[in-house]
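--- STAGE predict ---
source: upstream dedup step, 1 unique chain passed
mode: sequence only
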Amino acid sequence: MENTPTEDLQALRYIRYECQEAIGYITLNRPEKRNALNSDMVSELKLAFEYAEDDESCKVVVLRANGDAFCAGADLAYIQDLQGFSYTDNLSDSTHLMQLFHQIYTLKKVVVAQVQGHALAGGCGLASICDFAFAVPEAKFGYTEVKIGFLPAIVSVFLLRKIGEARTKHLLLTGDVVSAQAAVEFGLINFLAPKEELAEKVRTFARRLCVENSAQSMEMTKEMLARIPEMPLEDSLRYAAQMNAEARGSNDCRRGIAAFLNKEKITWEDADTDVNR
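--- STAGE serialize ---
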């Protein structure tokens, strides 16, 4: 089922959204500013991710960018404006970015970052908050906030979960800019691909998730992985057992087990389409 873009989505200035082959592409489209973030761009990203989550034709989301840089962090004019903010203004603005990161982290659909250039500060946060990330070998990564007396505060919550305390301390306290290969070793990035192959590598990976995996199972797994780290051991085990039981009663599980027992290969994209009809 196609989801017709709303007028708000069509009116976006800095972000583009399109869906092809069940992949929803959210594109940072401010190349002349190296896709730097400001409040309006964060608002548009929130709207685009909300739309992608509700888009029945989209099963996996790819976050990508136009231009040489993936995202250079905060826009310089935006940083200058912050000088005149009150504490209340700053809290509201920080909450705005926090909501975007939380939205991506808890999105019901898998999010894959396609990093074709440098990702720094908030831009590095955008890439590393995604479920998977592909990057070109030439890309640089870093949380450089401490270099200007700022804090990589919001991303720290997610990095501690993703790569652990020691690696998070190294990246956030030094503010070092590291190579793409080092980003892989730190656990920020999953895969490297030459620039001319990056888009196709991402598309192939996303298509594999669309075809081979149950959308419902991926959604439930993402939810489970987001919630379990906050729980005591006993609570997390009870929650896992409840999720297990819930999944067993789902239509997807019945379809999948039937196909397995009958030695049939199920194409989940077709199965999901049938359910949505």
